[in-house]
Design goal:
Elements: H1 2-21, H2 24-46, H3 49-71, H4 82-103, H5 113-137, H6 142-145, H7 148-167, E1 171-173, E2 177-181, H8 182-207, H9 213-241, H10 256-276
Antiparallel strand pairs: 1-2
Helix pairs in contact: 2-3, 2-5, 3-4, 3-5, 4-5, 5-10, 7-8, 7-9, 7-10, 8-9, 9-10
């Protein structure tokens, strides 16, 4: 518990400094680092250490180009055709993954369909999901909006933990996550919505921009629900492959996928809502 608290005391201010205080490109750089690590964690869990050593670089590079394409989609780069270049590179690397599957067939380092799907999930799908944070950061008042998925997901996680410890009686999904309860899940949903109401107050004090309280509640609900699903999905993968944590990057918290599993699911949905409604 001591290590967990110590990491939180250091990690949360660092995360806020990058997302809120630093230029928006720093968010893109941070997401590239997180995606590279997450790619290794998922491939190591599913494909095994040997195949990860052979093929991790290909998937990790793909994730970087995917995020770079999102970064250069910003209007500030409208006169620089970098987005298209990075998209072409990302597409070429995806084709290279399939080419590797064919060319190495029957050899020691051959890629199975499972390996290819894992590389695409870690090298394309997860970076695209995390890129929603970058897209939020590039909007007007993005330094505040980028925090919405984190507030919804982390407040949900925290409230679910304490509610489950205090009131938990009915198991939510015992074979996937034995400690999670229905009561904890409900508490997590409430935590996400309350967290977003508090965020609305802080956002107004910092920007003098009033966010619609109804949509804030919706964002808290959606972020909490999606975050809990993401937690369960990545827990199911761990159960299937018999691992406790994806990594040891964050003592007491596990790896990137252990800490950001809920954000991976919450961020894209929240970005879609923010872009389609008037907050």
């Amino acid at each position: 518990m001591g290590k967990r608290i110590a990491v939180a005391l250091v990690g949360i201010p660092f995360l806020l400094a990058v997302l809120v205080a630093a230029p928006y490109w720093a968010t893109g750089l941070l997401l590239c680092v997180l995606s590279i690590i997450a790619t290794h964690e998922l491939m190591n869990a599913v494909c095994g250490a040997e195949k990860t050593r052979h093929w991790w670089g290909l998937a990790a590079t793909t994730s970087v180009f995917v995020l770079a394409a999102v970064l250069f989609s910003d209007a500030r780069f409208s006169n620089v055709p970098m987005q298209g270049i990075f998209l072409y590179f990302a597409a070429a690397l995806v084709l290279l993954i399939f080419f590797a599957m064919v060319s190495r067939y029957g050899k020691r380092d051959a890629l199975s369909l499972l390996d290819v799907c894992t590389m695409l999930l870690s090298g394309v799908a997860i970076p695209l999901a995390l890129s929603a944070l970058l897209r939020l950061r590039m909007l007007d008042h993005g330094a505040g909006l980028v925090l919405i998925p984190l507030v919804a997901a982390f407040c949900s996680d925290t409230m679910a933990l304490f509610t489950g410890m205090a009131l938990g009686r009915h198991k939510l999904s015992p074979k996937v996550s034995p400690k999670k309860t229905v009561e904890g899940a409900v508490g997590g949903m409430i935590g996400g919505m309350v967290g977003m109401i508090l965020f609305r107050v802080i956002f107004y004090l910092c920007t003098v921009v009033p966010l619609d309280i109804g949509w804030c509640v919706v964002l808290g609900f959606v972020g909490a629900a999606a975050g809990q699903l993401g937690d369960l999905v990545f827990s199911a993968i761990k159960r299937q492959y018999g691992i406790k944590d994806y990594g040891r990057l964050l003592p007491g918290h596990g790896g990137v996928l252990d800490r950001f599993d809920s954000v991976i699911f919450a961020a894209p949905l929240i970005w879609l809502i923010v872009c389609t409604v008037s907050l």
